[in-house]
Amino acid sequence: MKTIITGGAGFIGSNAASRYLRRGDHVIVIDNLCRDGVRKNLEWLQGQGHLEFHELDIRNFDELSRVFREHRDASKVLHLAAQVAVTTSVVDPREDFEINALGAFNVLEAVRAAGMNSPILYSSTNKVYGEMTEVGTEERDGRYAYKALPFGVPENRVLDFHSPYGCSKGAADQYFIDYHRIYGLRTIVFRQSCIYGYRQFGAEDQGWVAWFMIASQLGRPITIYGDGKQVRDILFIDDLLNGYDAAFAAGDGAIGKAYNIGGGVSNVLSLLELVAYIEKRQSRKLPHGYSDWRPGDQKVFVSDIRRAQSELGWSPQISCERGLGLLYDWISENKSMFVEASMVA
Predict the structure, then answer these.
(1) Where are the beta strands (DSSP E) in 105-200?
(2) Topology of 2-344 in CATH?
(3) Is residue 259 annotated as a catalytic residue, yes or no?
(4) Alpha carbon 158 to its chain's center
(5) What CA–CA distance (Å, rounded) separates 133 from 327?
(6) CA 143 to CA 274: how far, in whole Å?
(7) End-to-end Cα distance, the chain
(8) At what angle do helices 320-333 and 335-344 cross, to 10 degrees?
(9) Where are the beta strands (DSSP E) in 126-202?
(10) CA angle (32, 190, 165) in 5-degree steps
(11) What is the domain partition of the chain in residue ranges?
(12) Do residues 120 and 111 lie in contact, with contact meaning Cβ atoms separated by under 8 Å?
């Protein structure tokens, strides 16, 4: 088996690459190594199996096409490379567009030009649904919740791209779906909610679960944007990888479709609840400040994951409590990596 992963040295990509390497796959990782910590992830992957690495930016279509032509016999493709922060997209919308929209287009065209028949899965985002202010939220038990939508947001919800990041990821989301309709590419879209877990070098503007835990253990300042009552359904990395496996195993049943993939209504967490969890683990108060809401920040997002459950036979197996514990312990055991990464940055 041969697997191509763009962004394969990133948080999700390196975990996926490790899983496939340990299964005996020949794994082709494409990454430009621009984010903090990814070089350490790549080093970690060395020696785990048949790894082939290309230091390559997905905006470079000619080089990207060359790699896909060389590996046109790949059994599956994961397109994970992206600019991942809403705040960064607001500061530099052109670069955000070039990486997320043009980069995804380049991947699709590289697959099409190579004549590949393998399934190609795209990691989209819950941001394609926008702020959803018309749905209405209320405060319930110290956190925000939808007034309606008892199962969360379904895939047939009207798309409403908000922020340059939402636009670029949303455009790619729709390109992937349409390339199946028009060209017959075997595409799958995962609209992922908040993924967290091992090897996540979270930052203040992205990967908030990991960032709060890293900052708390390194004594870094923590800022809550908004009032901290906003909630997300969070999903541990191993459950996401199980979702990838389920989608690939579904064959034609998953092709051309979009799935909401998150923790669902059973795995919802607010920022303040995460602070409380860390305080409990550390047996002390966690100093933190507050600042204004950020553009495009939803008060609530909870995925309706029933389509993935019924069509893919997938559902989260790791609870919030267990997943948070696994991540907290891993950061504690690997604290030196985060100190070195911050020194380099």
Answers:
(1) 120-125, 137-140, 143-146, 187-192, 194-196
(2) Rossmann fold (3.40.50)
(3) no
(4) 21
(5) 32
(6) 12
(7) 37
(8) 70
(9) 137-140, 143-146, 187-192, 194-196
(10) 55
(11) 2-344
(12) yes
- Predicted pLDDT at 344: 41
List the 120-125 sheet strands across, edge first: 50-55, 26-31, 2-6, 76-79, 120-125, 187-192, 257-261
Q: What are the pLDDT tens digits along the chain (345 aa)?
A: 999 999 999 999 999 999 999 999 999 999 999 988 899 999 999 999 999 999 999 999 999 999 999 999 999 999 999 999 988 999 999 999 999 999 999 999 999 999 999 999 999 999 999 988 889 999 999 999 999 999 999 999 999 999 999 999 999 999 999 999 999 999 999 999 999 999 998 777 778 999 999 999 999 999 999 999 999 999 999 999 999 999 999 999 999 999 999 999 999 999 999 999 999 999 999 999 999 988 767 899 999 999 999 999 999 999 999 999 999 999 999 998 887 655 444
Task: In whole angstroms, give the CA distance from residue 123 to residue 337.
Answer: 26
Rounded Cα distance between 309 and 318, Å, is 15
Q: Judge contact between 263 and 38, C-beta under 8 A.
A: no
* Whether the Cβ atoms of residue 299 and residue 337 lie closer than 8 Å to each other: no
DSSP state of 226: S
Q: Please, where are the H alpha helices in 36-129?
A: 38-45, 61-70, 86-91, 93-97, 103-113
Polymer length of the chain: 345
Q: Which of 20, 144, 146, 165 does the annotation list as catalytic?
A: 165
Which amino acid type is present at position 48? Q
